[in-house]
Amino acid sequence: MLHGLRLPQRLLLPIVKCQTITWGRRSLAKDAILPTVLVHGGAGHIDADKVECVKFGVKQAAQRGYKAMLETGSTLDAVEQAVMVLEADIHFNAGFGSVLTQDGNVEMDASIMDGSRLEGGCVTMARNIMHPISLARCVMEKTNYRFLAGDGAMRLAKEEGFEILPKSALITEASQKLLKVFKISNTDTLYNVVPGTVGAVAIDACGNVAAATSTGGLTGKLSGRVGDSPILGAGTYADNEAGAVSATGHGESIMRYNLSSRVLALVRHKDYSIQEAVEEMLQNMTAHFKQTGGLIAIDHRGQLGIYFTTELMSWAYQQGNELHCGVEVGEDEVVIVDDDT
Ligand code: GLY
Questions:
Q1: Residue 248 annotated as binding?
Q2: For the range 142-146, what are the long-range contacts, defined as Cβ-Cβ under 8 Å and sequence gap of 24 or more?
Q3: CA dist 116 to 75, 76, 270, Å?
Q4: What is the pLDDT along the chain (341 residues), one digit of tens a residue?
Q5: 189 catalytically annotated
Q6: pTM assigned to the model
Q7: Residues contacting residue 47 through CB under 8 Å, at least 6 positions apart
């Protein structure tokens, strides 16, 4: 079985019936929440001739995620499907398009979290599969554990019917070229000169949130290096009481700052707006570690936060029939999409 939508029966309820769902899922809020799927395609640099492709990719992902949420009523499906679109797109550093380790291999990290149950799944050092995000979901749904690495994660992938690709299948000309540049450039990282990690956050009309993040990590990383993306609280977090966050940028800084958790703590305990929270936490992290990054977030009321301290970050969201996207500070392109897209 290839992994796409795997729907437990309880999630097949239409969105309008969510007030009847039990075990901690929210009932309809007094103030209407607009269902939204927000994605990022990584913070960093985007070559001018790639900007349109990258914008197309993030818009496709937001639309796919939104459609999944309408079809299944599940924000978890929304973020998984959105991230799968980006993992299959060569323009992003995740799945196909992942950057290479020092040895020229692909080692991917991913995590996914359901804010209605504080459930999560994480994988690191995933190899030879297109969709590490679906493997992270499998860890959450099919095992008693919440984080699997390397050979153990790959054994689960085989058992669960993931397509195991030839070793070279995820290695692209672009990633090989980047590794060459890295090896002669005498720098410790190239994370801020290429589009980075991908991620998605979503909220439904009942305030159920989810988050997902997937990455190839850093060009030229040591084999075995683990970034922030598979770490709940750092690269990914979701809690119906506060919101959902996905991070991109310098993993060693994001994990030490516990960036996603800090953002949601400000919303929950200090009454910050989500935009104020992402700005303050990312500015503080950047000032402290002299490393940059980006964040997308949705709070429990459905408000959005989008911010980056890198040169650019691609993002897009769908809310109703509005599809927004941007890559530069202050940019917000809007198109109206058909109901059936
Ligand atoms: N933020 C992705 C990484 O550092 O691996």
A1: yes
A2: 146/120, 146/121, 146/122, 146/232
A3: 10, 10, 21
A4: 333 333 333 233 333 334 333 333 444 444 799 999 999 999 998 989 999 999 999 999 999 999 999 999 999 999 999 999 999 999 999 999 999 999 999 999 999 999 999 999 999 999 999 999 999 999 999 999 999 999 999 999 999 999 999 989 999 999 999 999 888 886 665 555 566 899 999 999 999 999 999 999 999 999 999 999 999 999 999 999 999 999 999 999 999 999 999 999 999 999 999 999 999 999 999 999 999 999 999 999 999 999 999 999 999 999 999 999 999 999 999 999 986 55
A5: no
A6: 0.91
A7: none
Would you say 282 and 185 are in contact if contact means Cβ atoms under 8 Å apart? Answer: no
The domain spans of the chain are 36-336
Give the Cα separation of 285 and 266 in Å (integer).
14
Choosing from 75, 101, 124, 197, the catalytic residue is 197
Domain covering 36-336, topology: Glutamine Phosphoribosylpyrophosphate, subunit 1, domain 1 (3.60.20)
Query: At 75, which helix (H) or strand (E)?
Result: helix 75-87
Ligand 1 proximity of 251 Cβ (cutoff 6 Å) = yes
Q: How far is the CA of 235 from the centre of ligand 1 (A)?
A: 8
